[in-house]
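Q: What structure does this chain adopt?
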Amino acid sequence: FLSLKVSMHCQNPACLNAKNKIEQWMAEAWAKDFKGEVSFASPILGWAGTADLVVHGKTDMVADYKTTTLANLKTPYEEWGLQLACYRKGLGLPADASLVSIAIDQESGDVKFFKWGTLATPKSKSPLRTPVSLTEEWELWHRIWILRNYDPRVY
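A:
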């Protein structure tokens, strides 16, 4: 959707709105040193992917954009966090790297940022799963696949 470092040819007001909000969030919360569309392939893990946004700095972070209807989204889907945990591991980022799901409304371009391990909203009763617990769950699924004779490392 957005790769921020690349010149945007975005004419759609929703696209421009999302781009501006993400750039503002990056400047306030993270860094100006980031990369968009970072691909990796790991024969050891049997996993490949492309992270939408990776920040290296005081705090490392990997983020993924999701277009959706924000009106119905109170918390991110658990699968989004698992995907980010896979990216974190595949990219060789430290275990304490932040995982952020960036939900973008497909109509308006409004944006919600969900940092895994924190409250989804101020009214939330419990925090989102932590990056460590998401990584542990992904590693468990990986072992189950191998036990069931599907070893993604050999394909």
